[in-house]
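REQUEST FORM: STRUCTURE PREDICTION
Request ID: SP-0412
Submitted by: Lab K.M.
Chain count: 1
Length (residues): 317
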Amino acid sequence: MMAAASRAPRLIDRLPAVRGRISENAPLAGITWFRVGGAAEIMFRPADEDDLAQFLAGKPDDVPVTVIGVGSNLLVRDGGVPGVVIRLGRGFVEIAAEGTRVVCGAGALDLNVAMTARDAGIAGLEFLVGVPGTIGGGLRMNAGAYGREFKDVVVSARAVDGKGRRLALGPAELGFGYRHSAAAEDVIFTSAEMAGTRDDTLSIQRRMSEIDAAREASQPLRTRTGGSTFANPSDPRAEGRKAWQLIDAVGGRGLTIGGAAVSEKHCNFLINTGSATAADIEALGEELRRRVRERFGVTLEWEIRRIGVAGPSGARA
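STATUS: Completed
RESULT:
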């Protein structure tokens, strides 16, 4: 009885009441594109921005928070994610077009925003069909593809900080750089306003189709992958080479560790061949970084976001 009385309270019992969905020990592997990783100690899907703000304002300060989208550019380590994982769902996916502007929730898929813009005759957002993921993730990393980035189209964004305070962010506060935003780590984006230009829907669709075709031809889209693994280096020692070219030069194409492999089609993509653990994938990425660093003196920076803690040594999916 004494042992039971002194047992630490469950984390879920320390958290404020919510209107959204909250659960314990929530599996994450099934919602990541790699299909690997452990569980979230707590998963919270807020009903709307008010629910999110109230939760963050009432949450104990010692409870860590991690935000995820659709898991397209995410590696969850095998030991899972301590604290609260927040995933923006149904209350954050609305998209509205007016004039040459599109306002969209942070949980909206980039693809859906591109299609909404097309249907409204708004050009300039076609590149979003080449950016797998959500608007929130794109804001966090200034995602881009095929010559354009979020910084080229984002007018403003709304967010909530770690204390539950609502924020309105313009270009200066967002501070976009290459695959980077200057927004504080505790900021959770909730929506964005993007600007384009007028054009006819057929021309916009043609450009979107060209991007789709280019992706299909060059990337391993129908595999368990996390997208582009490393950012292209700015280090002058790379001599203008992209990440995939450096990896190819050190014999990385087709390299395997456990169930993880470097794509033969595009060697800046790592693949779960079916039996990989998150540890396999991360170890393979680190081996590529080691080889490139030793050969060229260039340190490749992870573009894939890695979260959580390692699992037991030797554990397999």
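NOTES: The first strand starts at residue 21 and ends at 27.
Reviewed by: T.R.
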